[in-house]
């Protein structure tokens, strides 16, 4: 059951959902013509179908491991990385001055999603490297950029992100790693970091770690944290990998899924590093990387959903059972319901991710503050809905397989196990929801309101031709607006936080309906119209219950004392 | 983080939710006094806490395996089984004439749930044996009963259920296993069966297989199927295990979870068997076992939910992170929301399972047709909601753990992986939902309507003291009634089937609210009142969206042709 890159979906959504033509009309992205986009998607699709998809199972069966201190990756992963690197996919949105292709994030998001569908474990390696590229582009000195960026964009060197410590997870400010100036412009970094994705590998010439640590005069909390670039091998005078730095992989975690991706405990023992950004300004630099990664992780969820959907569909079309017209289970109403839900939610999540990326592109191309706030608003929504869709669709994918779904050989279970972490890393989904109702609403809900205006205006226009679909979208949006106003009015932040996740889910449901409506208008009576009709009739109505929960406030969730939770 | 048996929950629900006093007032169950119930729960709780819970991780890390044709179970499982057997827990609802304790299924359901929470993999062994005991009690000859039942109730022999074949899963009628009369009253059974839970073990003296097969004159489909008891070792003239029968375990599946439970491919090569029930009447006999197993599997879901909840709660109470009053994550509103949802849903699912068991007990004790139809109605709802609650709560349990949740050492992932199969086996949740809207509504919705009347009457009475909780319950029930009437009115069964699962979920939501309301009334202002308030305010409202989806009909889900699913 091979993976097929859903290229027509991307091209359709570029055109009809996220106005890619506006992006291509900017000077910055003027090279992203339809032809270029089409060629890029086709080429990336080939890579995913032919090179990456065959690595999905081997990575699961033969996990990355540490052998006498040397990290060994799964069979075939080195070749997979090489193909990704040589295709230029690591640096596809990188600055052309340093060897990148300078293409829009919208396009990169589509490509990254395809790679995630084909082989999530391996895709995480270029994704982390892309995040580091963006952080260095924005915050590193010209010397660091000149040395590191070309290597990373070419996929010769890979990148990682070192935030978490045992006592400092979601609360990054609690970290204790230290850095001291060496007096020559470099720093000595010491500390232990955990949950470091692709903390090492055996296929890149060098591994570049971005490490958060505290300088001696750094205040406690996030305001005293600085960011350092700490390479595995110290570049020699020619910029080639030289002697080993004072750091090592202590161990590799035994995880529920994503076995092909080594999750490392890293030890830095006075490792030499270079400051990125300002002293004590590490969080700002790290946020660049984290926002990039959040977009990427949402896309991982959508990719896993697509992979799980295709896998389940192939099974349903082949599995003979019961007396149906085709003789296969695809004719059962409940199997149809599952497949329709999988496909409709995947399309909705995909459109939201692409809209998120498109807002980033427009912000970067125009500097427009409205696009920046749109991108900021969509980031937590896309991360959560993308990853929840990955979980839900892969769960349903297992169900479509019946008993075979629980047997590892079928491959359905791997999607389910692998994608589970996406709801956790790069800021748990709960943290994302808090970000949405707090930081992203410090504008009094203006950015949200502007988006809701657009959705309602669009629904108003659509009413003329598709009233039965446009009506429910308008009404759901109006309800969402009321809850948004309620959220903004809460000065007790716990009232917002207690309903943050259901609120975010409702927001995503409505956004998904908006893109489905656009999709339906572009293809009246066609398959995408029918998919949109199912989404709006059957899945959108979930918003109502979610909004009730969103507005329920903190009293109920804090009703029990900690002791009363123990029955 | 040890498991603690939630005995006070069971005692509370027995008293206030499912009217256990009515059961104890029947002649059949007159021995089930409060004291006996309390002693049984305490003793079972001890077994679960001290013997079974320590076997949870070892079973995962060291799966059951086949070595040179011999099935080896995980370390400690043999002792675990022995403790279960010697405690009399296998036969606790069995007929006292054959050595059982004759206790109500309500009590057995509570005990089985505790065992599931402590160690799901091992618990499946006595659960399968209990199902066989019930099937033999109802359908086997006196000779078979006298020989087999005492051994099984004492846990000396174990039992399995052999339905599925590679081409016959949900469509049992497609099976091809054959049986031929030997002329001496016995039969020769030949065929291959797959997905046989606990198909063999190394701790019981004998393993008794109930096997569905077709006699030479059996018509195609389910009406030509007969049931045979096929022991691993043929009993000698004294009833002791003698020579090996012609059957074997071909292989053990490699599964996503439940590693301690061997899922076997079984080969029967003219194995000697004895007819159970009438010729060609195998499905009727098997249904006895399946209905028992469905109740049991729903309880497995609730047990896994309880285990995952306790595990996550312990973590949340200990994990220091962020600036909160206690310094731990339990004070974060989103963590509270997760814990409240886990606990509230687990209580709702537990009450539904106990109500299902109570209806079975009342039906058995009184022969009353209304109790029989109540039990039949609740069985698919309990199976689905119990197992979905297991999935959802264990998913949330992983989330509460943050990054640690994805690391196997934390134990959170195991609950998530193990419980996944419960939504699949013993009739997939989709099959259960079809059963609810088809077979269980052949009475024109009368049984459902009677239950909804009771819920509304109760809400009416509760309105006097708790209007803010009773009102929403009444309204939700009324909406559910309307959709129920819509369901019954659909002559095109695909209209029912397309919305069957969301309908079932909505039904469970309302039922859960009913038991929470009872619970609140029994403890006004107390912890259970607060839990009920959260459930009714925050979780119950989900029903509205589900009912819209339930009534959406088949046109949308069949909107796409099979080809159009392939994008």
Automatic annotation (TrEMBL), chains A, B:
Alphabetically ordered keywords of this record: FAD, Flavoprotein, Oxidoreductase
Gene3D superfamilies: Acyl-CoA dehydrogenase/oxidase, N-terminal domain, Butyryl-CoA Dehydrogenase, subunit A, domain 2, Butyryl-CoA Dehydrogenase, subunit A, domain 3
One Pfam family in the UniProt entry: Acyl-CoA_dh_M
UniProt domain Acyl-CoA dehydrogenase/oxidase N-terminal: residue ranges: 78-156
InterPro entries associated with the record: Acyl-CoA_dh-like_C_dom (IPR025878), Acyl-CoA_Oxase/DH_mid-dom (IPR006091), Acyl-CoA_Oxase/DH_mid-dom_sf (IPR046373), AcylCo_DH-like_C (IPR036250), AcylCo_DH/oxidase_C (IPR009075), AcylCoA_DH/ox_N (IPR013786), AcylCoA_DH/ox_N_sf (IPR037069), AcylCoA_DH/oxidase_NM_dom_sf (IPR009100)
Catalytic reactions of this protein: 3-(methylsulfanyl)propanoyl-CoA + oxidized [electron-transfer flavoprotein] + H(+) = 3-(methylsulfanyl)acryloyl-CoA + reduced [electron-transfer flavoprotein]
Residue ranges of domain Acyl-CoA dehydrogenase/oxidase C-terminal in the record: 281-439
Domain Acyl-CoA oxidase/dehydrogenase middle: 161-270
Boundaries of every Acetyl-CoA dehydrogenase-like C-terminal domain copy: 451-559
The protein's Enzyme Commission number: 1.3.99.41
GO MF annotation, one: flavin adenine dinucleotide binding
Cofactor section: FAD
Function as written in the Swiss-Prot or TrEMBL entry: Involved in the assimilation of dimethylsulphoniopropionate (DMSP), an important compound in the fixation of carbon in marine phytoplankton, by mediating the conversion of 3-(methylthio)propanoyl-CoA (MMPA-CoA) to 3-(methylthio)acryloyl-CoA (MTA-CoA).
Family named by the database record: Belongs to the acyl-CoA dehydrogenase family.
Protein name: 3-methylmercaptopropionyl-CoA dehydrogenase
Organism: Ruegeria atlantica
């Amino acid at each position: 059951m091979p993976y097929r890159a859903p290229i027509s979906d991307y091209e359709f959504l570029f055109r009809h959902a996220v106005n890619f033509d506006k992006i291509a009309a900017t000077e910055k992205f003027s090279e992203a013509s339809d032809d270029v986009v089409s060629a890029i998607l086709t080429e990336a699709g080939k890579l995913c179908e032919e090179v990456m998809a065959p690595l999905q199972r081997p990575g699961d069966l033969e996990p990355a491991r540490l052998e006498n201190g040397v990290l060994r990756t799964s069979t075939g992963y080195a070749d997979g990385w090489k193909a990704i690197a040589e295709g230029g996919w690591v640096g596809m949105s990188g600055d052309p001055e340093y060897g990148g292709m300078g293409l829009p994030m919208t396009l990169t998001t589509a490509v990254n999603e395809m790679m995630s569908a084909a082989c999530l474990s391996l895709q995480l390696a270029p994704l982390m490297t892309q995040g580091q590229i963006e952080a260095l582009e924005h915050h590193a000195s010209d010397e660091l950029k000149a040395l590191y960026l070309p290597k990373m964009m070419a996929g010769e060197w890979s990148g990682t992100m070192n935030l978490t410590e045992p006592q400092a997870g979601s609360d990054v400010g609690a970290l204790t790693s230290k850095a001291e100036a060496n007096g020559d412009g470099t720093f000595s970094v010491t500390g232990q970091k955990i949950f470091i994705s692709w903390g090492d590998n055996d296929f890149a010439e060098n591994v570049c770690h971005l490490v958060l640590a505290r300088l001696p005069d750094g205040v406690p909390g996030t305001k005293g944290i600085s960011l350092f670039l700490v390479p595995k091998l110290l570049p020699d005078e020619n910029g080639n990998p030289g002697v080993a730095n004072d750091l090592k992989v202590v161990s590799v975690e035994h995880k529920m899924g994503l076995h092909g991706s080594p999750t490392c405990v890293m030890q830095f023992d006075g490792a030499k590093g270079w400051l990125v950004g300002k002293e004590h300004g590490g969080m700002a630099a790290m946020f660049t990387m984290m926002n990039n990664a959040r977009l990427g992780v949402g896309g991982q969820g959508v990719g896993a959903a697509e992979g799980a959907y295709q896998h389940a569909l192939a099974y349903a079309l082949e599995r003979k059972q019961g007396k149906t017209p085709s003789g296969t289970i695809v004719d059962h109403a409940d199997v149809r319901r599952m497949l329709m839900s999988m496909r409709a939610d995947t399309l909705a999540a995909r459109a939201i991710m692409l809209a998120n990326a498109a807002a980033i592109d427009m912000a970067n191309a125009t500097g427009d503050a409205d696009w920046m706030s749109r991108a900021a608003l969509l980031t937590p929504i896309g991360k959560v809905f993308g990853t929840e869709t990955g979980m839900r669709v892969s769960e349903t994918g297992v169900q479509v397989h019946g008993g075979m779904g629980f047997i590892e050989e079928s491959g359905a279970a791997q999607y389910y196990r692998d994608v589970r972490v996406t709801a956790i890393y790069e800021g748990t989904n709960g943290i994302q929801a808090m970000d949405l109702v707090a930081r992203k609403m410090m504008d009094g809900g203006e950015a949200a309101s502007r988006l809701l205006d657009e959705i309602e205006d669009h629904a108003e226009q659509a009413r003329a031709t598709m009233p039965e679909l446009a009506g429910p979208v308008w009404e759901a949006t109006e309800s969402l607006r009321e809850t948004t106003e309620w959220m903004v009015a809460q000065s007790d932040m716990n009232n917002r936080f207690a309903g943050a996740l259901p609120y975010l889910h409702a927001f995503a449901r409505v956004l998904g309906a908006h893109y489905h409506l656009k999709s339906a208008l572009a293809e009246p009576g066609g398959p995408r119209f029918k998919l949109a009709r199912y989404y709006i009739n059957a899945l959108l109505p979930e918003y109502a219950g979610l909004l009730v929960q969103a507005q329920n406030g903190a009293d109920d969730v804090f009703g029990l004392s900690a002791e009363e939770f123990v029955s």
